[in-house]
Prior knowledge:
Its EC number is 3.1.3.18. The protein is an alpha/beta fold. It has two domains: 7-18 and 87-214, Rossmann fold, CATH 3.40.50.1000; 20-86, Putative phosphatase, domain 2 (DNA polymerase, domain 1). The protein is built from eight helices and eight strands. Strands 5-4-1-6-7-8 form a six-stranded parallel beta sheet, sandwiched between helices. A two-stranded antiparallel sheet has the order 2-3. Helix 8 links the parallel strand 6 and strand 7. The termini are close together.
Amino acid sequence: xxxxxxxxxxxxxxxxxxxxxxxxxxxxxxxxxxxxxxxxxxxxxxxxxxxxxxxxxxxxxxxxxxxxxxxxxxxxxxxxxxxxxxxxxxxxxxxxxxxxxxxxxxxxxxxxxxxxxxxxxxxxxxxxxxxxxxxxxxxxxxxxxxxxxxxxxxxxxxxxxxxxxxxxxxxxxxxxxxxxxxxxxxxxxxxxxxxxxxxxxxxxxxxxxxxxxxxx
Length: 216
């Protein structure tokens, strides 16, 4: 049985790759640069999802710093670039991507991570070969939860929004899918914070990535 959607758009952090430990290292290295306290993985994971600038803004504010974020960003992005490829793919991700790709399904990534860090991470995990389109947080004039990035990827693939599928883990992903009119699948792992996964109207909520292949 062929997969029912000709285009699948995946979130990256918390959906394809467990990148929180690497991101946390970048955040704490930046805080250390500014002689500020460090935070544990759980705290930093709660700040992930809205892009790198908002992430480090949350961290600096939590540490009580009033430093201009523009002054912090160059150092943070340097640390981010150094640690980004360290993220590990979740179990079953590569096999699922390979299966979908082999069936002729177009695959794309839509993330709020800066685009320059997306390809090195996917390449390091052996996943880049499967993707036809990539949109990062700084690729377009708008980012998730706007529907614009998803609509851009749909247009690029020549697929109507209702014929695409967004796979993510967070409220940001759910809102983006809703705003673009794209069907949604959520994963039970990842960085969903307080989101009630079963209450947002997803086509399915899956426990592991290979369960995606069971959609019909």
